[in-house]
Amino acid sequence: RWKGVKSFQNDEIAERRAKGLCFKCEGKYHPTLHKCPEKSLRILILGEGEGINEDGEIIALETQEVEEDEEEEVEVECKVIGVLGSMGEFNTKKLEGKLQNIEAVVLVDSGASHNFISSILATALELPITHMAARKIKLGDGH
Protein backbone atom coordinates (compact mmCIF):
# COMPACT_ATOMS: atom_id res chain seq x y z
CA ARG A 1 0.00 0.00 0.00
CA TRP A 2 1.23 3.50 -0.86
CA LYS A 3 2.34 5.36 2.29
CA GLY A 4 0.81 8.68 1.18
CA VAL A 5 -2.78 7.38 1.40
CA LYS A 6 -4.74 7.43 4.64
CA SER A 7 -7.86 5.36 5.21
CA PHE A 8 -10.76 6.93 7.11
CA GLN A 9 -14.00 5.53 8.45
CA ASN A 10 -17.23 7.29 7.43
CA ASP A 11 -17.62 8.91 10.85
CA GLU A 12 -14.02 10.22 10.68
CA ILE A 13 -14.69 11.76 7.27
CA ALA A 14 -17.85 13.45 8.52
CA GLU A 15 -16.07 14.73 11.64
CA ARG A 16 -13.17 16.23 9.65
CA ARG A 17 -15.56 17.89 7.20
CA ALA A 18 -17.61 19.31 10.08
CA LYS A 19 -14.45 20.69 11.74
CA GLY A 20 -13.05 21.97 8.41
CA LEU A 21 -9.82 19.94 8.68
CA CYS A 22 -7.54 18.83 5.86
CA PHE A 23 -7.55 15.05 5.32
CA LYS A 24 -3.80 14.98 4.67
CA CYS A 25 -2.18 17.30 7.24
CA GLU A 26 -5.08 17.75 9.70
CA GLY A 27 -4.70 21.56 9.51
CA LYS A 28 -7.55 24.02 8.89
CA TYR A 29 -8.71 23.53 5.30
CA HIS A 30 -9.78 26.14 2.72
CA PRO A 31 -10.50 25.14 -0.91
CA THR A 32 -8.22 27.81 -2.43
CA LEU A 33 -5.96 29.09 0.38
CA HIS A 34 -4.89 25.87 2.10
CA LYS A 35 -1.45 24.39 1.46
CA CYS A 36 -0.16 21.43 3.47
CA PRO A 37 3.16 22.22 5.18
CA GLU A 38 6.28 20.48 3.93
CA LYS A 39 7.75 17.89 6.27
CA SER A 40 11.30 19.12 6.70
CA LEU A 41 13.86 19.08 9.46
CA ARG A 42 15.75 22.23 10.35
CA ILE A 43 19.04 21.35 11.94
CA LEU A 44 21.84 23.33 13.50
CA ILE A 45 24.80 21.56 15.04
CA LEU A 46 27.12 23.79 16.99
CA GLY A 47 30.78 22.99 16.80
CA GLU A 48 33.59 23.47 19.27
CA GLY A 49 33.60 26.95 20.71
CA GLU A 50 30.16 27.89 19.35
CA GLY A 51 26.96 28.72 21.20
CA ILE A 52 23.66 30.54 20.75
CA ASN A 53 22.79 33.71 22.65
CA GLU A 54 19.29 34.81 23.71
CA ASP A 55 18.73 36.49 20.31
CA GLY A 56 19.36 33.20 18.48
CA GLU A 57 22.71 34.37 17.11
CA ILE A 58 25.70 32.01 16.94
CA ILE A 59 28.52 33.18 19.21
CA ALA A 60 32.04 31.92 19.92
CA LEU A 61 32.62 30.43 23.37
CA GLU A 62 35.84 29.90 25.25
CA THR A 63 36.55 26.30 26.25
CA GLN A 64 38.37 25.22 29.38
CA GLU A 65 40.94 22.46 29.32
CA VAL A 66 40.23 19.60 31.72
CA GLU A 67 43.13 17.82 33.37
CA GLU A 68 43.30 14.12 32.59
CA ASP A 69 43.31 13.18 36.31
CA GLU A 70 39.90 14.79 36.92
CA GLU A 71 36.80 12.65 36.59
CA GLU A 72 34.73 13.74 33.64
CA GLU A 73 31.25 14.90 34.59
CA VAL A 74 28.57 13.92 32.11
CA GLU A 75 25.50 16.12 32.02
CA VAL A 76 22.87 15.75 29.33
CA GLU A 77 19.75 17.84 28.92
CA CYS A 78 17.00 16.49 26.70
CA LYS A 79 14.24 18.76 25.40
CA VAL A 80 11.37 17.70 23.18
CA ILE A 81 10.87 20.49 20.65
CA GLY A 82 7.34 19.72 19.62
CA VAL A 83 7.50 18.12 16.21
CA LEU A 84 4.67 15.62 15.97
CA GLY A 85 4.72 12.49 13.88
CA SER A 86 1.76 11.20 11.91
CA MET A 87 0.66 9.08 14.87
CA GLY A 88 0.82 12.03 17.30
CA GLU A 89 4.07 10.84 18.87
CA PHE A 90 7.11 13.06 19.39
CA ASN A 91 9.84 12.02 17.00
CA THR A 92 12.29 14.92 17.25
CA LYS A 93 14.42 15.64 20.30
CA LYS A 94 17.08 18.22 21.12
CA LEU A 95 20.03 17.00 23.18
CA GLU A 96 22.49 19.40 24.80
CA GLY A 97 25.64 18.17 26.48
CA LYS A 98 29.36 17.63 26.19
CA LEU A 99 31.30 15.16 24.06
CA GLN A 100 34.89 14.85 25.24
CA ASN A 101 34.48 18.20 27.06
CA ILE A 102 33.18 19.92 23.90
CA GLU A 103 29.73 21.49 24.18
CA ALA A 104 27.42 20.10 21.52
CA VAL A 105 23.77 20.38 20.53
CA VAL A 106 22.27 17.40 18.70
CA LEU A 107 18.84 17.14 17.08
CA VAL A 108 17.58 13.56 16.86
CA ASP A 109 14.83 12.92 14.29
CA SER A 110 13.60 9.34 14.06
CA GLY A 111 12.03 10.06 10.67
CA ALA A 112 15.06 11.72 9.06
CA SER A 113 16.75 10.08 6.10
CA HIS A 114 20.16 11.74 6.62
CA ASN A 115 22.43 12.76 9.49
CA PHE A 116 24.69 15.81 9.69
CA ILE A 117 27.63 16.84 11.88
CA SER A 118 29.71 20.00 11.93
CA SER A 119 33.17 19.48 10.43
CA ILE A 120 34.58 21.52 13.32
CA LEU A 121 33.02 19.12 15.84
CA ALA A 122 34.12 16.06 13.85
CA THR A 123 37.70 17.36 13.76
CA ALA A 124 37.65 18.18 17.49
CA LEU A 125 36.42 14.64 18.25
CA GLU A 126 39.10 13.25 15.91
CA LEU A 127 36.50 11.54 13.72
CA PRO A 128 37.56 10.52 10.21
CA ILE A 129 36.24 12.87 7.53
CA THR A 130 35.63 11.73 3.95
CA HIS A 131 35.16 14.64 1.56
CA MET A 132 32.29 14.21 -0.91
CA ALA A 133 30.64 16.31 -3.59
CA ALA A 134 28.54 19.17 -2.20
CA ARG A 135 24.80 18.58 -1.87
CA LYS A 136 22.02 21.13 -1.76
CA ILE A 137 19.60 20.94 1.16
CA LYS A 138 16.23 22.68 1.16
CA LEU A 139 15.01 23.73 4.60
CA GLY A 140 11.42 24.03 5.72
CA ASP A 141 11.52 27.82 5.27
CA GLY A 142 12.42 27.44 1.58
CA HIS A 143 16.14 28.27 1.88
Largest sheet: 3 strands, antiparallel
Oligomeric state of this protein? single chain
Shape: elongated
β content, as a range? Answer: 15-25%
Helix content: 10-25%
- Tally of separate helices: 2
Q: Taking all residues together, what is the mean pLDDT?
A: 70
Number of domains: 2
InterPro entries: Peptidase_aspartic_dom_sf (IPR021109)
Protein name: Pentatricopeptide repeat-containing protein
Organism: Trifolium medium
Pfam families: RVP_2 (PF08284)
Walk me through this protein's architecture.
- It comes from Trifolium medium.
- This is Pentatricopeptide repeat-containing protein.
- InterPro entries: Peptidase_aspartic_dom_sf.
- Residues 74-88 have low confidence and may be disordered.
- The two termini are 33 Å apart.
- Helices cover 11% and strands 18% of the residues.
- The chain has two domains: 1-37, no CATH class; 40-63 and 73-143, no CATH class.
- The protein has two helices and five strands.
- The strands form two sheets. A three-stranded antiparallel β-sheet has the order 3-4-5, with no helix packed on it.
- The protein has 143 residues and is α+β, with helices and mostly antiparallel strands.
- A hairpin with a 5-residue loop joins β1 and β2 (58-60).
- 3% of the residues are buried.
- The radius of gyration is 21 Å and the shape is elongated.
Give the topology.
Blueprint: H1 10-19, E1 50-52, E2 58-60, E3 77-80, E4 92-99, E5 102-109, H2 119-124
Antiparallel strand pairs: 1-2, 3-4, 4-5
Quickly describe the structure.
The chain is of the alpha+beta class and 143 residues long. It has 2 domains: 1-37, no CATH class; 40-63 and 73-143, no CATH class. 11% of the residues lie in helices and 18% in strands.
